[in-house]
Amino acid sequence: MTEYTEITVKDDGPVAVIHLDRPEKLNALTEAFWPQMRDALARLEASGTTRAVVLTGAGDKAFSAGGDIAGFGELDGTAAKRAFQADCLRTFAAIEESPLPVIAAVNGYAFGGGCELALACDLVIASERAAFAMPESGIGLVPGFGVLRGPAVMGRHWTKWMVLAGERLDAATAERVGLVQKVTAHDALLDEAVALGQRIARAAPLAVRVGKTMINRGVDRGETGYSLEAVTMLQETADTAEGIAAFTEKRPPRFEGR
């Protein structure tokens, strides 16, 4: 397997395990993560031996605490901001459209982009310690993929609860609203996720592929164009600049709506 800087891939059987691998930063997602994730998934799809993928976080605290917010502030100009957002959306689409079922094993915080990764996966198993949030409005942004897929997964009002108010859901609540399919003991999480992958791997692979495709037929890919332009617009506002500055300086933001 290719060496990656943001993820590690264990591929020694029908169920591959991808770890988001920056535990010292709570597996925050840098600009380099998105193409690496797509490349790893494409390689597993082409392997001929992988039948399912488990996506989890390294360490004991986080699946992913979300995007590298300091990195957002380093994007220079509209074109760079749009290109970055497009790259993120391509990665979410690659997970959704992969012929391989992708299981999120959420071992801790799944915030921002981490929560969106869970929404892109086919199935979600969560540790009893897991927590989910899409708090981007606190820095003047919205979760560009979460606002698209959240309503289909858990309904419009719960998505608004998370996006507009930045509300955090514990594992039990996430299961109740449909974001999570199973909550398990923390120490059993990865074993449970791999066992689910193995159960899928024993099924007819063509039937699994067709089943996933048919279930996803109602997903509107055209909606990503609006998300791309809307988030790019927000990234250029004074509010987002203030939100990022406040985050890095560890102080409350002072938003003015511009």
UniProtKB/TrEMBL annotation:
Protein's name in the database: enoyl-CoA hydratase
Record bears the keyword Protein biosynthesis: no
Gene Ontology terms: biological process: fatty acid beta-oxidation
SUPFAM superfamilies: ClpP/crotonase
Gene Ontology terms, MF aspect: enoyl-CoA hydratase activity
Annotated EC: 4.2.1.17
Pfam family, one: ECH_1
InterPro entries recorded: ClpP/crotonase-like_dom_sf (IPR029045), Enoyl-CoA_hyd/isom_CS (IPR018376), Enoyl-CoA_hydra/iso (IPR001753), Enoyl-CoA_hydra_C (IPR014748)
Family assignment from sequence similarity: Belongs to the enoyl-CoA hydratase/isomerase family.
Reaction it catalyzes: a (3S)-3-hydroxyacyl-CoA = a (2E)-enoyl-CoA + H2O; a 4-saturated-(3S)-3-hydroxyacyl-CoA = a (3E)-enoyl-CoA + H2O
Enzyme category, top tier: lyase
Alphabetized UniProt keyword annotations: Lyase
